[in-house]
Specification:
There is one protein chain. By secondary structure, this protein is an all-alpha fold. Helix content is 84%, strand content 0%. It folds into two domains: 212 residues, no CATH class; 196 residues, no CATH class. The chain is globular.
Amino acid sequence: MIKRIIDFIKKPTSKDILVNTIGNYINVVFIAFFAFLLVRIISPSQYGVLSVLLGIAYVLANVLDFGTTATIYSYLPPLIEKSKKDTYIFIKTIFFYQTMFSLVVISILFITFPYLDKVFFKTNAPKWELYVTTISVLFFVWSNFFLNILYVSKKFLKANIYSLIANVVKTVVIIGFALAGRLYVGTVIFVFGIVGPIIFFILIMYEKRERLSLFIKSKIDRKHFRLKYTLTYFIATQFFNLASRMDLFLLSFYFSGSEQIGHYGLAQKIILTVTMAIVSITQVLSPQFSHLKTQEEVMHKVKTGFYYLIMPAGIFILLFLTPDIIFKLFFTDKFIKTAAITRALSIPYLISILGSIPYLFILYTIKKPVYILWTNIVFLAVVSTGSFLLIPRYGVMGPIYVLTLGFIVGTAITSVASIYEYKKMPVTAT
């Protein structure tokens, strides 16, 4: 038994997951450190403006992904093994179309942002800060793109080292601006959204300098963009993103200014921190699922995937069992109500883990994101309707009941779809 566990830990996939998990949590530590640093340098009102502008940039960068992340994970791994020429054509094609679409949206934002800020966001930030925010969106899009390329190429250590170096440089530059008395909202956004990504690009280009010419000389082939696949997944993710925010939106609507929202928001952040472990695992497993052709291969990978997901599942179980005294130690008596909410929230997210493997199978093995689309539509309907009905009656516990039901229904749909498609695959290679 012990030997089997040791052999499992020694597997390349296990090492990649460990490296990626550590790297992702180091990024979380840097996020916390930046918050710790900035609240001591800039005023609360400035920090509020910074939060709004960076939030806009991050959300827009995720939207401008346009579903290309799934396309990269699904179609690039086989190309890497088969053809170097097609690999570079694929990468350049996806990069070109994503950049063109992004530039259209960003250009519109660049022109309209001062008006939008005056009417909707009301940050009253100077125009130059709004323009820096707009430009940073493109750099976020590019850095996400190349980070995904590194992940698919199984360069997890390099990807996380490059991210670490970029974070260290950002820290040094921010401290430099602070010492020079030049740390404003705009300069912070400039560092986060432009300096950091540029450092990341320089590191990649230096390492891949011999292959840069191959990328530049490669042609653009529209068939590699996989428009139907990309667009379907993009729409599916928007439904999920909306559903995942609906609980907090409706809590704010019904209990505006209430302490309950603060307790729920903190509990949600604790849960989302744990989900980073799930993300780290699926980032490693996703390219592997794109290679599977037979029932035998699928079953082997499914079993392996569930073994790795035992760790985040165990953390959610521990959260559920954690006594109040531990929460008091970290968050003081003021946030003790957060403990009960966190324990309750761990249940639906524990259930969500069960849906991770069918999700990978549908998206990357059989490449039918339409199942994900319908799942997320149903998930949004359940969460929205349920929250609307239960929040007035049960308060902060209402969304938890709804999320539990939503994840059960969503997991059931993807599992049934996976079994149906699995049965159509050949049993073994012929």
